[in-house]
Write a structure and sequence with these properties.
single chain
Length: 91
């Protein structure tokens, strides 16, 4: 399930990046902010890595059930549809 959720989040991020590239209407500052946040996160959490799929699958039914569960997880619309105020942390 976690692997499927990770795949879906990556797909959402890719789609958002594609939309941002297609409509350059002041998103340059957002790209700089995102790069800065990614750098800060990596500095604060150097051992965090992305999810990787298991090397072997022993139970096909469990794999299918986990994938289906990952498809059912509500991911919302990403950051753009989040409620509240989003801000860059101050140093």
């Amino acid at each position: 399930m976690a692997h499927r959720v990770s795949q879906r989040l990556s797909q959402m991020a890719d789609e958002q990046r594609m939309q941002e590239r297609q409509s350059k209407t002041g998103t340059e500052l957002i790209e700089v902010r995102n790069a800065m946040l990614a750098r800060r996160f990596q500095d604060a959490h150097p051992n965090v890595q992305g999810a990787s799929p298991p090397s072997t699958f022993r139970d096909g039914a469990a794999l299918s059930a986990g994938r289906a569960a990952g498809d059912r997880v509500e991911l919302g619309g990403g950051v753009n549809r989040a409620r509240g105020t989003l801000a860059i942390p101050k140093d």
